[in-house]
Write a structure and sequence with these properties.
CATH class of the largest domain: Alpha Beta
Bound molecules: phosphoenolpyruvate, manganese (II) ion
Helix content: 40-55%
Distance between the termini: 61 Å
Structural class: alpha/beta
CATH superfamily of the largest domain: Aldolase class I
Number of helices: 14
Strand order of the largest sheet: 1-2-3-4-5-6-7-8
Radius of gyration: 24 Å
Shape: elongated
Strand content: 5-15%
């Protein structure tokens, strides 16, 4: 993407010495609720107040948002607290209403980024706007869909663009509501280094106790900001109750996070090395996770062999695996010696697991 405007400028205009923080409830529920939370967040690191007005719900019949009346409540927030105001837009009508109500930050939700038709409609409705437009990743881990969304918005002459990483949905249940797949966010950052990247630990975690760690990882990966859902009475929230934190907790989280400042060469070196180490740690975790899963499958095979009275060691199968892995490894720049050592160890562990099952 060719551009002569530095899209980081809108972020610099905030003049912050800490990451940009967007805080506020998942949904606007009542005027009192919207104003109460805003006042509790007013004197914190939060610069932008969020609330969903139109809620994209997976199943019909759930709370679908208060609609455009909520925009008036948001305007009141701006008047009373000075916070900038943000909401999600999912079609051209939403965009028009949001712009008419002087909403400062419009974000495009994960369920919209999946659809080039919707993104195109929103991009055209936003044409030339001076407002800040944030693009969440699509629900599925598809790098090009996310990049395509950015390109469509950018083509509409919008200069103040940002990205929000909110994780990706999976069929398999994990501890996350939406798995982070940090590598995808890192790839997008590398592709568009001058577009600020914000992490949404609330929708990644889906649980309030995960928010701190996800936020710290994001900051260690040099993310520019955080979007954290906050409600004065989280358990009673009309949507996403499990993942919201009180304004008080949000303020504590911001105090407890280790924030890296890019000041001098020494700091710069430290930031870079920490960033690389965080990436390595994430890969190590996923290696362990995969190995754990592999052993579970070995145990299943053990059960099967036990029922059919088959020997644990099947040397033909083992030779095939190792030959395939040596070839694959070469393509990835890994030596034959290394592959042999690592797969022998994995194989041995696998045999141990099977033996345990068979002899139990
Ligand atoms: C939200 O931010 O409230 C929201 C609906 O998020 P997402 O699009 O990430 O699901
Ligand atoms: Mn939400």
């Amino acid at each position: 993407m060719e551009n002569n405007v530095n899209m980081r400028d809108w972020l610099k205009d905030f003049g912050l010495s800490h990451p940009l923080v967007i805080g506020g409830p998942c949904s606007a529920e009542t005027e009192e609720q919207v104003l109460k939370i805003a006042h509790e967040l007013k004197d914190s690191d939060v610069s932008i107040y969020r609330a969903g007005i139109w809620k994209p719900r997976t199943r019909p019949g759930m709370f679908e948002g208060v609609g455009s009346i909520g925009l008036k409540w948001m305007q009141k927030v701006k008047e009373e607290t000075g916070l900038l105001i943000a909401t999600e837009v999912a079609n051209a009508a939403h965009v028009k209403l949001a712009l008419d109500h002087d909403i400062d930050v419009l974000w495009i939700g994960a369920r919209s980024t999946v659809s080039p038709f919707i993104i195109q409609e929103i991009a055209e409705a936003l044409e030339g706007t001076e407002k800040i437009v944030l693009i969440k990743n699509p629900v599925n881990p598809d790098l090009s869909l996310w990049l395509g969304g950015v390109e469509r918005i950018y083509k509409s002459n919008i200069n103040k663009i940002g990205l929000i990483h909110r994780g990706f949905s999976t069929y398999e249940k994990t501890k996350y509501r939406n798995i982070p797949e940090w590598q995808i966010a890192i790839e997008v950052q590398n592709k568009f280094p001058d577009i600020p990247m914000i992490c949404d630990p609330s929708h990644i975690g889906g649980r309030r106790d995960l928010i701190f760690d996800i936020s710290q990882t994001a900051l260690d990966l040099n993310f520019d900001g955080l979007m954290i859902e906050s409600h004065h009475n989280p358990d009673k929230a009309w949507s996403d109750a499990n993942q919201q934190v009180t304004p008080k907790r949000l303020i504590e989280i911001m105090k407890e996070l280790k924030i890296r400042k890019e000041t001098n060469q020494e700091e710069d070196y430290k930031n870079k090395i920490d960033n690389f180490r965080t990436q390595i740690d994430l890969i190590d975790y996923s290696l362990l996770d995969s190995l754990g899963k592999r052993m579970k499958i070995s145990e299943e095979i053990g059960n099967l062999k036990k029922s059919k009275n088959v020997a644990v060691l099947q040397s033909k199968r083992w030779k095939k695996i190792i030959q395939k892995m040596i070839l694959e490894g070469k393509e990835k720049g890994l030596t034959e010696e290394f592959i042999l050592r690592i797969f022998k160890a994995i194989h041995q562990e696998s045999i141990n697991h099977q033996e345990k099952v068979i002899n139990s």
